[in-house]
What we know:
The chain is an all-alpha fold. Helices cover 67% and strands 1% of the residues. It has helices at residues 2-33, 35-54, 67-78, 88-91, 94-109, 111-122, 129-138, 147-173, 179-194, 213-228, 230-241, 249-273, 283-297, 312-324, 337-351, 366-394, 400-418, 433-448, 450-457; strands spanning 358-359, 362-363.
Amino acid sequence: MASLNALTKDFLRLSQDFPSKSLVRWRNWQRRLGPARILMASFGGLILLGTFLLTLPAASQGDPVGFIDALFTATSATCVTGLTVVDTGKTFSLFGQSVILALIQLGGLGLMTFSSFFMYLLGGGRLSLGGRDILQETLSQGPMQNLKALLKTVFLATVVIEITGALLLTLCFLRDMPVTSAFYYGVFHAVSAFCNAGFALYVDNLEAFKGDVLFNFTITSLIILGGLGFVVIFEINRKRQRPQYHLSLHARLVLRMTAGLIIAGAVGIFVLEITNTLEKLPWGERILSCYFQSVTARTAGFNTLSVGTLTDATLLLLIALMFIGASPGSCGGGIKTTTGAVLLAFIRARFRNEENVHLLHRRIPSDVLARAISVVFFSAALIMIFTFLLLFSEAASISHQQSRGIFLELFFEVTSAFATVGLSTGITSSLTPLSKLLITLVMFIGRLGPLTVAIAVGKEAKTRFTYAQENVLIG
């Protein structure tokens, strides 16, 4: 009996020690890897899981999807891009579409955001330092005192916005299908729009809805809210609760840049397409189509105009919008609106021969300028490199003259993949297996961000000294 009591005490002691020791090991592992590597590994693991599920016979309506197409689709969904090599609505079963929807939701908000939220709940309302670092990396957010309140806002805003959007879209779909199908379509497209994924269950994307006012404004509202970033939504909510609260420079920049880019994009598309895709449309549909395409071009990848029939000038305009993309901490990609604003302010300061860079009566720190320039340089270089690789892959069997004809389409495709937009001129499904793998890699890098990937795969600097300074002639 005594030995039994001793064994019981030992078991209880070990069971109490196990969680604490496991937690210590987990935190040490977090510290060794760092937020960037953990974020990269979490997205990579989610993509591999999604690939496995999409290759199952139950995921397809007919023959199972091949590995490369499943990997491409899983990456596109997880990285909320929307590029597709197969017809989502006709190829995948209800199970397969549900897998894609889950990948969009997890990838849009960030897998580590979900993990941090549940760790927060399990931890009695506390986040570890490692968890805070990973969450800040996921949301592209710097040090913040009220990170727990932001985490709550992320989930509350997501639930409220997606449910509202799903109900409004259900009303639109009810015109053509029964209630259950309409609700399913409403949920799928609401999640896809808010997470800026651009996945649609129609062959021609959303071209059939170009004249539907409620549908267009619901989708664009979801896209805009998903592209603002949760930090901005958090601040807007605080402003609504406390009118005396002043929005941060970040929030004001995001709101101004978003509005400016939507207006500029819509006007540009109208001018460039008035004698092309808009020519035969009524005036109401012309304006609605330009507005919709301007909103979706920076983040989501839905389309009500056939992208393959747009003029070359319009494609270049869309490339510029895609490159800028959404805002930090959002579901969208690109270099981000704030990066574009900082870069424009930097150029303006140089033209005026000003020593400091100012935005909205605030001085921008030099480290922020360096980061903005690095993001733009790395992003542009990555797009150029992968466009070159795709030209090599796709143009191997055709003449140089013919390859020049597909240059713009491949350039457009790579930019769309990097910015996690999902717009395409229609060449995605016809790409070679190598090109599909290259686009898959671009989507992955674009979702994480080039600097995050560089930090994750790079080595920590160990230099303890600095060299002497000397000037170099520039320009």
